[in-house]
């Protein structure tokens, strides 16, 4: 049994050659790209704020321009601290993830020599970010080392009542100052500057006036270098392409590649799984085992994992790694096909997850012999995704959007996420959410509605693939029968102003699209018996999709042509036979 996740994950990396070169950042003088090779030396050399991210995480991609903007606001603070990033999708950084217990992305840690790393919440505002960093430098007793103390001769002393404000002033001015600045806390309500001779040179209660005096008398101005753009991250409004007018078939490879990543990385990244997290994992594995048919070899892997965790009360990272190591579902080299983005960090993993969720809901619908007033897949996703999906902001949004499918005693938001969400932690108004599904039919339609709402929220973000812009699915071009004329007219005014409103036709389309018998199996090892079994599954609804009707028409034409040819052959044979039996005329 393999004892580490690294060899397992390397197999996945090899099958996706080039993916891990797709960093969202590059070292540009203000942001340093770190790996396990240079991490320790760099963070021990000076205080360092490190962002741990995944290049495939939509929230991480969306945060790139924001992070570069707020870092620019402290460009002059590099003498006191540095900023760095670590791409946790790189398998070489696996040990860093385990060492610092990183389980959601993006995660920010501030490293100070001789102390434990300080967790910092995600910041969106330059002023809040500046105050937070200055506060850390003061509170962690780095003040005397970062901002020169009393023993330095010929220093200019800045005193005042607020240590954090004094720290920000010195952090802003020291790099460009013609003198050494040092700080001193006083009970005086005013800011005071004492020059190198010991004379009070300026006093004011106005911080802006104090800064103006420093700028005028002690600052040597230099031109600031602009930040470089991140590689591959362009304006989402640029290079947009029109959405495709056909439905890309479902590839089993997309589902399996994402399930691999989910089990190996997102589940395997947690140090310990217990309590409500473990309950959610067990529930999720149960619905995957029951409703996701990936062929015998992968089904056996899923059943194996489900069986082994069922009786466990706690799972460590090492135990989980040992469970998945050696399984086909974790070691097979499978690549995304339809979900492959125009750039390595776009689409991919989350795209495959959505297809997997849709396929499970459709498979449950196909298996249903009679109506069941339950929604096991919806509930399992509501419990699992917010706790295990590594993109923490996406996880919070999903928890909120699907909060009305939880049971009455269950919390809306998991307590295992370390980062503050981008919205208040309140229970959403049920009337603002898609109606909770109450049957297998409802689940298929509900999940499509939820997916369209997520697409609407993400439309226009940096994480959107310009080659595959977010649209309502299915579009009128993909399923004209799913849309009424009124809904189509409304959609022309705004691409998210309407959704398919003919539910029977929509259900038929979704079932046909996601059912296993419609899948493509390129790049996947699957037995003939498995495929034959799926082909026998009938669609239990009295409606045909457009593709079904086209297929029936083509088959009918072919059959008619075959009958014509057969009739012609019979006629030719009859005429030839008659000619053979006609007696030859005799001569007189």
Automatic annotation (TrEMBL):
Transmembrane annotation, as ranges: 549-572
EC numbers for this chain: 1.8.3.2
Domain Thioredoxin stretches: 13-138
Residue ranges annotated for the ERV/ALR sulfhydryl oxidase domain, each copy included: 342-472
Cofactors: FAD
GO cellular component terms, semicolon-separated: extracellular space; Golgi membrane
Catalytic activity: 2 R'C(R)SH + O2 = R'C(R)S-S(R)CR' + H2O2
GO aspect biological process, one term: protein folding
A Pfam family recorded for this sequence: FAD_SOX
Signal peptide: 1-21
Any one GO MF annotation of this record: protein disulfide isomerase activity
EC category name: oxidoreductase
Protein keywords: Disulfide bond, FAD, Flavoprotein, Glycoprotein, Membrane, Oxidoreductase, Signal, Transmembrane, Transmembrane helix
UniProt-listed Gene3D superfamilies: ERV/ALR sulfhydryl oxidase domain, Glutaredoxin, QSOX sulfhydryl oxidase domain
PANTHER family xref list: QUIESCIN Q6-RELATED SULFHYDRYL OXIDASE, SULFHYDRYL OXIDASE
Entry similarity comment: Belongs to the quiescin-sulfhydryl oxidase (QSOX) family.
Annotated protein name in UniProt: Sulfhydryl oxidase
Species name: Mesocestoides corti (Flatworm)
Lineage: Eukaryota, Metazoa, Spiralia, Lophotrochozoa, Platyhelminthes
């Amino acid at each position: 049994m393999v004892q580490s996740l690294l060899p397992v994950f390397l197999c996945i990396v090899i099958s996706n050659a080039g993916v891990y070169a797709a960093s969202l950042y590059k070292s540009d003088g203000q942001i340093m790209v770190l790996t396990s090779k240079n991490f320790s030396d760099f963070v021990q050399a000076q205080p360092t704020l490190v962002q741990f991210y995944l290049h495939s995480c939509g929230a991480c991609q969306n945060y790139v321009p924001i992070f570069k903007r707020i870092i620019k606001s402290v460009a002059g603070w590099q003498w006191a601290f540095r900023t760095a990033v670590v791409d946790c999708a790189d398998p070489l950084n696996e040990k860093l993830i385990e060492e610092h217990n990183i389980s959601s992305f993006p995660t920010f840690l501030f490293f100070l020599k001789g102390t434990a790393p300080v967790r910092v919440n995600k910041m969106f505002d330059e002023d809040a970010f500046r105050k937070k960093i200055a506060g850390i430098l003061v509170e962690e007793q780095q003040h005397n080392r970062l901002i020169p103390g009393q023993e330095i001769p010929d220093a200019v002393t800045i005193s005042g009542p607020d240590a954090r404000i004094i720290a920000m002033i010195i952090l802003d001015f020291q790099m460009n100052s013609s003198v050494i600045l040092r700080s001193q806390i006083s009970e005086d309500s005013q800011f005071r500057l004492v020059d190198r001779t010991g004379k009070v040179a300026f006093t004011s209660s106005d911080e802006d006036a104090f800064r103006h005096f420093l700028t005028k008398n002690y600052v040597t101005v230099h031109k600031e270098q602009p930040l470089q753009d991140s590689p591959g991250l362009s304006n989402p409004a640029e290079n947009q392409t029109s959405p495709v007018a056909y439905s890309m078939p479902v590839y089993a490879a997309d589902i399996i590649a994402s399930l691999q990543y989910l089990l190996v990385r997102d589940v395997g990244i947690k140090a310990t799984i217990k309590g409500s997290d473990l309950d959610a994992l067990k529930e999720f594995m149960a619905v995957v085992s029951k409703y996701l048919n990936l062929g015998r070899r992968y089904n056996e892997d899923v059943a194996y994992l489900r069986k082994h965790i069922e009786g466990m009360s706690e799972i460590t990272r090492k135990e989980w790694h040992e469970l998945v190591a050696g399984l086909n579902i974790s070691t097979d080299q499978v690549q995304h096909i339809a979900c492959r983005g125009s750039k390595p960090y776009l689409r991919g993993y989350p795209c495959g997850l959505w297809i997997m969720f849709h396929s499970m809901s459709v498979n449950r619908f196909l298996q249903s012999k009679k109506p069941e007033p339950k929604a096991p897949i919806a509930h399992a996703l509501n419990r699992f995704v917010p706790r295990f999906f590594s993109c923490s902001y996406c996880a919070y949004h999903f928890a909120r959007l699907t909060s009305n499918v939880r049971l009455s005693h269950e919390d809306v938001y998991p307590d295992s996420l370390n980062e503050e969400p981008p919205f208040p932690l309140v229970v959403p108004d049920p009337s603002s959410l898609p109606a909770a599904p109450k049957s297998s039919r409802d689940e298929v339609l509900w999940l499509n509605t939820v997916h369209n709402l997520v697409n609407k929220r993400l439309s226009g973000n940096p994480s959107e693939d310009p080659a595959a812009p977010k649209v309502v699915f299915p579009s009128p071009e993909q399923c004209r029968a799913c849309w009424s004329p009124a809904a189509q007219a409304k959609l022309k005014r705004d691409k998210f102003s309407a959704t398919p409103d003919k539910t029977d036709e929509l259900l038929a389309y979704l079932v046909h699209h996601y059912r296993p018998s419609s899948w493509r199996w390129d790049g996947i090892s699957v037995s003939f018996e498995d495929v034959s079994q799926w082909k026998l599954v009938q669609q239990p609804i009295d409606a045909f999709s457009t593709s079904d009707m086209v297929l029936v028409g083509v088959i009918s034409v072919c059959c008619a042509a075959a009958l014509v040819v057969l009739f012609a052959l019979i006629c030719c044979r009859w005429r030839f036979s008659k000619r053979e039996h006609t007696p030859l005329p005799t001569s007189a």
